[in-house]
């Protein structure tokens, strides 16, 4: 939905300066279909004004600066930095990354910041962005929240959750790790990732 709205939006407001001066009454209908359009219009304008006032209309290139901008949290900051600016300060942890990292045995945490730290330890920095993107696509296409398609999953040989028929959704994370985490297979995927990482030549990734 967002991708269908942005072409017209960017045409009317091609940069932060234009968006900072937007009239909410004109902006709201353009983002109406995305839901919460009034609040989002306010946030978009405030975000653009902050970019103009504090950063000369440019998107800052550090996580610390980005999360100070209205409407931008750590997840969004990592998306923007990694995908738009090729700056890798962290790993995007959304609902898909959370679910897959837990199922694959790469973390036993449910807090996004702790999950991010666990993943940053085992994934080479220059792959932080692509790793999250791959988990997100795998979560959308194969490892669904309610009905993971174990039978068609290429990660099944490595995955400690492959034999579970029904897995809990991570929308309301349990304080306890998934059942597989208590078994002996947990951590096999993490070890496999670490093995690959050891062979990889570390780069700054910027
Ligand atoms: S084997 Fe199943 S639980 Fe593991 S990643 Fe694949 S679909 Fe998800």
Based on CA atoms alone, the radius of gyration comes out at 20 Å
Helix count equals 10
Class of the largest domain, according to the CATH hierarchy? Mainly Alpha
Q: Helical amount among residues, as a percent range?
A: 40-55%
Sheet having the most strands = none
The low-pLDDT segments are 177-186, 200-206
Overall strand count = 0
Strand content range: under 5%
Record keyword descriptors for this entry.
single chain; 206 residues; mainly alpha; Endonuclease III, domain 1; Endonuclease Iii, domain 2; 50% helix; elongated; binds iron/sulfur cluster
Summarize the structure.
The chain has 10 helices and no strands.
Provide structural commentary.
With 206 residues, this protein is mostly helical. The chain folds into two domains: 2-58, Orthogonal Bundle (Endonuclease III, domain 1); 95-199, Orthogonal Bundle (Endonuclease Iii, domain 2), CATH 1.10.1670. The protein is 50% helix and 0% strand. It contains ten helices and no strands. The protein has helices spanning 2-12, 16-20, 24-31, 37-55, 63-66, 74-84, 95-103, 112-122, 128-141, 188-199. It is elongated and about 55 Å long. The chain starts with a helix and ends in a 7-residue tail after the last helix. Residues 177-186 and 200-206 have low confidence and may be disordered.
